[in-house]
Every structure is written in C-alpha cells, then in structure tokens.
Amino acid sequence: MNPGSINQNGDPVQTTRGCFFVAGPTAVGKTEIAIALAEACNGEIVGADAFQVYRGLDILTAKPSTEALGRVPHHLVGTVSLTETFSVARYLEATRQAIADIQTRDRLPIITGGTGLYLRALTRGLADVPPSSPELRAELESIPLPQLLARLETLDREAARLVDRQNPRRVRRALEVVLVSGKPFSSFRQEWEETPPFHGVLLERGRDDLYNRINQRTAAMFKQGVVEEVRAVIASGTASSTAQQVLGWNQIGALLRGELTEAECIASIQQATRRYAKRQLTWFRREPMLTPVPIAPENDSKAVLQKVLAIAQASLGLQ
Fold first, then answer.
1. Structure pTM?
2. What is the sign of the dihedral through the CA atoms of 201, 205, 211 and 217?
C-alpha cells in the first residue's frame, strides 16, 4: 500500500486511501469488531478517541483491555500524558504519521473511535480557523456557560445550534473564533462540505439495546474502581483541562466532594453518555461514505465481523 502524499493545500484524501474506518457511538462494540477485522486483514488499529489517547483514566475512558491491546498493534491509544492538552491538529499530525508507517509495512490501517471531529479532520483536513487568543480565552473562561451560549446565539445562531452545548470548551472556542475572525464560526465548516473518497462502516444498535449497554458499562466501571482511579488523578493534580473533559470526570468529582451519592453519580453519567451517543450518531450519519451495519442483540460478533469484512474487501479490493 502506498500512503500517498499531502498536496499543497493539505488535502487529506491521499492520507486516507487504503484505510478503513470503523465508526459508531460509545458502547456499540467498535473495539471488538475493529480488532477482529485487523486480525482478519493484516491490519493495525489507529485510535480516533479524544480521551483514550491519554495514558491513565483507563477505566473512565473505557480503554481496550490489556489483552485486547495485545492482539494487534494499536496507535494513538494511551500515548499522551494526562498533563498535556491535546488538539485535533495534533491528532491529525500524529495519525498521518501512524498511517504512513503502517502502510509502508503493507498492513491495513483501521481507524476506529467515536470522535467524529477526528474522522472529519482526517478525511477533509482542518478548516483554516484563527489561532487561540490566550487573553480572550481567559476572559471567556470566567463567563458561565449559559451566558456564553446566549452570546454565541446572538453572533452566530447556526454555530450555537451545531456546537456541543454541554461542552464549555467547545462553546468557548466557537465564540472565540467569531470574536477573533469577525466571521461566523459556522462559515469555516463550509470547507468540509465536499466528501472525499474513503471507506468504512457505521456500527449501529437499536436505541434500547445501546442504552442498556451504556448503562451496564457505566455500572461496571464503578465495580472496577473508577472512583479510586479519578480520586488518584485529582490528588496528583496532573490532569490537563483537555483531559478533564472526559465524560464522568465532573460527576465523580461531585461524588468525591459529597455533592452526589454513588447512585446519583452513576445515573448522571449514564444519562450524559446516552446523550453523547445520540450526538455521535447524528454526526456519523452525515458521512455518506460510512456504510451502516445494524447490530441486533442476538447477533454474535462473528456474524457482525463477516458483514464488516465483506464491506472492507469490496471497497478496498482486499483478498
């Protein structure tokens, strides 16, 4: 396989040729299918998760087990210190390097994860948004989220509709771009309208099935010691502002401060994760190059793998 090259405009199409994407919402079963596909296709996994990229918080981020990580080589999973901030630009650079490395060894890069922005950046590149302003960022960080949203709605209603309204960092960044550039944040999305050729699948489950899996996984995290994991990281003071955006961090922090009971904490994380899964599906369903693969509760992993393998073979010309 040839990784191709990036043209003078930073066109990512060459980067993603000869790659295969396994996308889907949290808890849908991406890890198992992606690893099995890699084993069947002489592949390696490239993570596309904004929080599994960190070392630490393994339980909270539902990182693949040690056994799963040992089955096939993984890239961009557990490679960044919790002390570091991590951006989509940095992810894009590291992933392009990983893809090129994998392809020079005639292996198939299988990109899997639930961060839609990473997939969009890989397949379309980055919009030419202005750099961050430390002074403005500090000012915006002092403003409560409802006021930030109200201001964004006044300046750019479309961005206010599209942004993750539960994520203060994303809202601040959208507002910062508007104020620095003098242009609507939503205008930069126009650079991503054209869909380049890439291949992959979107794993889907029925709502009740997916929500049940989310609820069960959240409860299992607490049995596995997620509270102690977060307590240790908080005590160390090592988590960057980016790392602290992981789902469940704020709720467990409230539990440790005595503001929530454990039952309330679990229920809050379950609800937040279900909402996140809904947003993920909305994002991925806008990607016409992802072939939907419905998974019923009675389907075993082998049956799902055969569907995904057939799509990969047909789209990439694999034997």
1. 0.79
2. negative
